[in-house]
Amino acid sequence: MNAAAVAKLLGVSRRTVMRWVTQLDLQLDKNELGHYQFSDVDVDRLKQLQNETNQQLLKQDIQTENNSRKGVIKNNASLDANIIETLNERINELERTIRSKADDVVSYQLLQHRQETEELINRITTLEARVVELENAQPKREARKEKALVFDQAEPSATSKRSRRKNLISSIFSL
């Protein structure tokens, strides 16, 4: 039987089985892969160790219950209430501090944005004044009456186009 099967049989993890093997210093056979092989005798020894461990845990639980019934619960309840109240006060104080700091951060950011906005407005005003100054310094240009490009002139009339076509057609057919 391998370690996983033994762990399943005992209802514990494989790691617990391996810890018990170390505690009992069991000499186990290994298979070709190096995994432990448990015999029925080994499994019985592990079951015995498990029972002993469970009995020790039960004894500890019973002792703990007996010790805790000596009036400690009443003192713990009042201590717990005081501790909870103190913790609540500290939490409330921390929340007030956080809100205050958050308000300070927002106020600072608003002041920074206002300052940046004022700087931009001043810059725009300066640029507008400079543009007006440059426009006034330039001589006004007179509109040109003559057209410099041939393409800007008015198109020839429709009658002249027809006469050109006739001349072209007649030149082609007259030989």
TrEMBL record:
Domain HTH merR-type residue range list: 2-55
Region (Disordered): 143-163
Keyword Transport found: no
Main location: cytoplasm
Domain of life: Bacteria
Location within or outside the cell: Cytoplasm
Classification via Pfam families: MerR_1 (PF13411)
DNA-binding region of this protein: 3-23
Matching InterPro entries: Chrosome_anchoring_RacA (IPR023522), DNA-bd_dom_put_sf (IPR009061), MerR-type_HTH_dom (IPR000551)
Function: Required for the formation of axial filaments and for anchoring the origin regions at the cell poles in sporulating cells, thus ensuring proper chromosome segregation in the prespore. Binds in a dispersed manner throughout the chromosome but preferentially to sites clustered in the origin portion of the chromosome, causing condensation of the chromosome and its remodeling into an elongated, anchored structure.
Family, per entry: Belongs to the RacA family.
Name recorded for this polypeptide: Chromosome-anchoring protein RacA
Protein's organism: Metabacillus rhizolycopersici
